[in-house]
Structure formats: structure tokens, C-alpha cells
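Retro notes, structure queue

What went well: the backlog is down to a handful. What didn't: a couple of records were mislabeled last round, so from now on we paste the full input next to the output in the thread. Example, using Tubulin-folding cofactor D ARM repeats domain-containing protein from Eleginops maclovinus:
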Amino acid sequence: MASSETDSACPGVEEGESFVKLCVLEGFSESSETKALISSLPEAHGDLVTSERTTEKFLVILDGYQEQPHLLDPHLEWMVNMLLEIVRSDTSPPSLVHLSFKFLYIICKVRGYKIFMQLLPHEVADVQPVLDLLSRQDPKDSETWETRYMLLLWLSMTCLIPFDLCRLDGHLKSEGGKAKDSTMDRILTIAKSYLLVADSPRDAASVLVSKFMTRPDVKQKRLGDFLDWSLTTITQTNDGLLRDIVMLDGALQSLAKLFKHGKRDDLLQYAPTIMQCVEQKHLSESSQAMLRKHGVKLTQRLGLTFLKPRLAAWRYQRGNRSLAANLSASQSGAAPSPEVEIQELEEDYDIPEEVETVIEYLLVGLKDKETIVRWSAAKGIGRVTGRLPKELADEVVGSVLDCFSFQETDNAWHGGCLALAELGRRGLLLPSRLADGT
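Corresponding output:
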């Protein structure tokens, strides 16, 4: 009786417990159902209604793990292998192949492409089949864009093979009097063409560029030409036209990823020219939020290229997480290590002039009207500041604090908060500055 009275007095208890159970999953419980859905694809692909119903069921199951995608990890390999087996089969008709790639895209969307890509096979034997299959696709077919997206990611992974691509060409026999293009040229042509499309494969093409152009054999022969092509695209486009917006988006996105994954020694010579081109484009004044975001992303990557990769010796050290270790260290009065002293002596190095332009660009980005731009600018401020000497870094913190003025908008205050949070997370917000922020 007491139990029932308690339950009736607290009607929200059971609802709250069930809500927690719904939100926090313990594992992937639909494994057998998922396996059955994938196995049914050869029968379902021929009928439009059946294929759509099967896809919807699969989508509902996977979308339930958007908040906890890591729960899929123990099951990703067999799901991907089952679908790729269908794709690779010579007996699979095109409709079945496209449906399988649609399922692969759903998995990729939920888990994230960075994790998902690692599951795609990338042996030497995979390069030509993937390249040939991608070459046969119609970039204008709006019904099969998932196929092109996944093939571009798959091609990105095959670019990681450690052999020179010219070994895959053998003897380039001519077809109809014309010599066949090399594998390197074919991949580059496909990457460029998909950077200019208006749908999601453009994003996958930028990933392909970042993997392909950073290969030792490719960067030696094609990097300069690709960067010239990108700069020409940026210079000749007008963000007032839809087609030009798409082209500009693809060029900026690919350059940002290229400078993220490429080696500093390879890209440093090109950075000033690209920085000048971006500056002249006035992307921060564009009406397109995505262009402003990509402009911020590219600018911060250029800034990191100008600066030597180093960990700031002056950053705030939180000390030991163990209370006992903290107390013993304070009692012993341990002196700073020689390595730290050497790092502090090395802080006096020349900072390129372009870094000031980069920081000013990012500070403007903190005041942008779109959150995605402000967030990207804040992360850029944190990354660049971490490579600066203490005095210059303190000036950056002071500039961020200027966002908290009553003359500034709510956007500037929010951007300033994001930047301070990023600086604090990286240990770049020193205790001496804390009083200024109160």
C-alpha cells in the first residue's frame, strides 16, 4: 500500500526512468534485424515500394544511434562487408548496387565519415575497380548521389596505398588512336569535376583531394598545378551566382582540407599567394554562411602553416590530477626542467607578417552572425595562439576580450565566449588574465 501511495504521489518517477532508458542505450540491439534487411536487398531492389520500405526501416534503426554512434562500432565491419560483397558481385544489377551504396551512406552519416572510411578496403587491387565504377556514374543523376559520395570516399582510401601510382598503369595502350590517361590524371580529373557539383559528393571530393594531393608522387608532379587551378577558380567566381557559389565552395573546402592534412614543408611556399587571394576575395563580407565558414577554416590553416608546429612552453599547466602527487610536488619544490627552460629561450623567433592578417580575419569571424562561423573562428584562434610566443598570445587574448564591449553585438559576445573557452581548454588563458574577464 505504501509503495502504491508513493508511486501515485510521484507520477513523474516512472516517466523519468523510462525517458533515461530511451535516451541512454547500452548496445546495438537490432543486429539480427539489420542483418535480415541487408540480406533482403537482392530481392527488394527490383520493386520501388519494397526498396523504399526496406531503406526506411534501416534508416529508422540507424538514426536511433545518432547520439551514441560508437555503439555501432562492434557491428560496422560485418555490415560494411555484407554490402560491399553485393557491390563487388558481377551479378549485381545497377539498381542493387545503388541501393547497397545508399545503405552504406546511411551508416556513414550516422557514424561519421572519418571513422567509417577506415573500414573501406584499400588494397592495390581496389584502385582500378573503384575508379572505373566512379567513371561510369552520371554526376547529374539526383537519384544516385549516395553512390558517387561513397565511391569518392572509397577512392580516397585507395589513395593511401604506398606504391607509386605509375606502377598501376603498365603500358598505356592507346584507344582509337588516343593514349589512355594515367591513373594519377584520371583521379585528378574526377576530383576536380566533383568539386564543382552542387550536391553532397562535393564534400567527399574535398576529402579525396586532401588524401590524393598529399601523396609523395602526386605532390611532386601535380600539387602546383592543382593550386593554380584552385586560385583561378576562386578569383574568377562571383558569390552572387549560384553556380559560382558551388564552385567557390568546392575550391575553398578542398584547400582547407589540403592544408590541414598536408606537410608544412610542401605547402609553405604556396601559403602567401593563397592568403593574398583569400584576402582579396573579401569572403567575410559574403552573403553565404558556408563560404564565410570555409574562408575562416582556410585562413586558420594558412596561419598554422606560417607558424612552426610547437607546443607553447608558457601554457597553463593544471598540475597532477592526483591530490597526493600534487601535494608531494609542492612540498619538494621541484625546479623547472631544463627542457622547459630551453623551450622558453626558443620562443624568440620571427613571426611572418601574414600571421597578423590571419588573426585579424579570425577576430572578425568571431563577430559573424552565424554560429558555425563564430565557432570555427574560435577554434582557429585557439590553434594559432598555441603556436605564438607569450607576449603575442597575450595580445590576442586582449583582442578577444575587446569583444565584450557594450558597443558590440550579441554575436560578438557569443564569439568571444567561444574563443575564451577554446583558449582555456588549451591552457592558453593564463591566470594573470582572469581578472580582466570578470
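Agreed that this is the format going forward. Reviewer comment attached to the example: The CA atoms of residues 140 and 197 lie 8 Å apart.
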